[in-house]
Request: fold
Amino acid sequence: MCLFCEIAAGNIPSKKAYEDEQVVAFYDIAPQAPVHILIIPRRHIESAQTLTDGDNELLCHMFAVARKIAAEVGVAENGYRLITNVGRDAGQSVPHLHLHLIGGKTLNWNN
Ligand code: 5GP
Ligand code: ZN
Reply:
C-alpha cells in the first residue's frame, strides 16, 4: 500500500480534519502555511492524470469537502489555494492523488 493508502486505512496515524466513505482529509506533516490540509480519495488513484470519467462525482466531492473544511478552519472568507501536483516536474512526492488546501496567510504564487 502507498503512504496515503496507509493513512486512509488508519495504519499510519495522522491528524484528521475530515473523513467519510470516499475521502479523508488530514493535516500536512510539513505545513507550508498556517493552514495546510491534504484531501485524498480513499481509493488509490495515482494523480489527476489517471482520473477517468467515472471519477467525476468523486472529484466534485473532493472539492465539496475542501469548501466545508475551508469554512470550518476559517479561511473561506479570506481565501485559500487548492493545488494538486502531478508527476515529477511538479514535485509530486506521494503517488496518490491529493488536493493541498493551503491558506491562513497571503499566498505568493510560489507560496
Ligand atoms: P506532494 O509533494 O506529493 O504534492 O505532497 C505530498 C505532501 O505530503 C507533502 O506536503 C508532505 O509534507 C506530505 N506528507 C508526506 N508524508 C506525510 C505523512 O506521513 N503524513 C502527513 N500528514 N503528511 C505527509
Ligand atoms: Zn495510495
Summary: Residues 81 and 109 are 10 Å apart (CA to CA). The mean pLDDT is 97. The radius of gyration is 13 Å.
